[in-house]
Amino acid sequence: MTETPDPLADNRALRDKARASLASRLSALQTGLKDRPIGQRLTDEAMARARSAAGEAKDIALGNKGVIAATGAPLAGWLLRKPLRRGLSKLMPSLADGFARLRDQLAKGVHSGETGDE
What we know:
Shape: rod-shaped
Distance between the termini: 132 Å
Order of helices and strands: HHHHH
Number of helices: 5
Structural class: mainly alpha
Strand content: under 5%
Radius of gyration: 39 Å
Mean pLDDT: 86
């Protein structure tokens, strides 16, 4: 007598092979997560991207030093305007007095309607 082949045997073999493959992948994933948890992986990825962006910014800045200086100098002057004024008035009181008189004269001229062109 001949044995009748089981029509589902091939399907079972494929299922068992897929199950073993999945179990192997799951075991590797669990081992990997024990070594480096998801939070650490995310932190490492964010830090790598931040380092990359900082490197690109540095390269761009090094290539455009003139633009950076032309932007930074007036910005620094504006941010430090009050301390600079105080320092200049201490170093050069006569200059500060001259500017104060000029400011007063201009204010009088503007308020009185005089333009000084007459």
